[in-house]
Amino acid sequence: MTDTLQTPELTFDLDTDGVEALRAMTAIREFESRLPQYSKDGLIRGSTHPSVGMEAIAVGVSRNLRAADSIASNHRGHAHCLAKGADPGRTLAEILGRRDGYCGGKGGSMHIGVKELGILGTNGIVGAGIGLATGAALAAQMQRTGDVAVAYFGDGATNQGVLAESFNLAAIWNLPVIFICENNHFAQSATLEQMVAQSDLRRRGEAYGVPSIDVDGMDIEAVNKAAASAVARARAGDGPTFIVADTYRYLGHMAGDTEIYRTKEQVEAWKGRDPIASLAARLLAQNVLTQNEIDDISREAAAAVDAAEAFAKASPYPDVADAFTDVMEED
Ligand SMILES: Cc1ncc(C[n+]2csc(CCOP(=O)(O)OP(=O)(O)O)c2C)c(N)n1
Ligand SMILES: [Mg+2]
User: Fold this and answer.
1) Residues enclosing ligand 1, CB less than 6 A?
2) How many CB atoms neighbour CB 248 within 10 A?
3) Can you give the pTM of this predicted structure?
């Protein structure tokens, strides 16, 4: 995420954008990969949903956003928050239910909201963020701020009625909203084909008059460019865009998932298209980075998540006496 970006990144320079994106994706991968162990260790109460494999989407989109732009996320939303500028320590503290978390540790993984970063919240209700982002876009339009709003949601969420309503309102009112469907081909254990008879999701946006595109969600450059043009359209007052990003989650739906609904071969095949490994290979082949420098980026990411982990674990649990504070907005 950048605060200063005024013009969309329709180009993707490996020397600058490529290296920054590699850093951002590697840091998110390191953060998300540790979650299953925290669950096993009893540090996380309730479910948490890692997005390992899907990093190119959050990073590719956020590179085109500024702090005042809003994002509304879903249950698999840590990467969306981190890419938008959330601090890893405070994010992890929230996931572990600690007082230094963004919501005082009372929200957890699916209630991470950061007003000053435009993060309207991760959200446990499938599809709910779509309406929130559309509302934020309406507010931005009415207040003429020039800000945009992004809704991140999964393929499963496309069957929630709120998407139809939001597409329609965004199209007729020309709202500055970007709908990002992270199509990882599953909703829990159900495949997309089991859920819908028309699996070309892009056509749903088109049906409502929302310009809609497919993008390879494992390719950071492709996501970055698609998001750049969608954000530029929205800022220029040209209305919404629907981006369907093809992707895959490497880990189970949540900790404890037996994953009997898919084969190891399928998982391995998708790992062969890994967004981080393929960008690193490009940077190496183009002599932008050496293998040592790529390894340094991994080491830096591990050190940053070590620090986040130490910060979160050292943070106390909220006080029982505070159970009813922060529940209602006082005026
Ligand atoms: C309204 C609602 N219905 C059902 C659920 C249970 N649920 C949680 S995650 C999930 C699957 C969502 O799939 P998708 O939108 O594709 O996101 P993914 O998990 O694949 O990232 C379901 C059905 C819920 N949380 N909210
Ligand atoms: Mg899905």
Assistant:
1) 75-76, 124-126, 153-157, 184, 186-188, 253
2) 22
3) 0.96
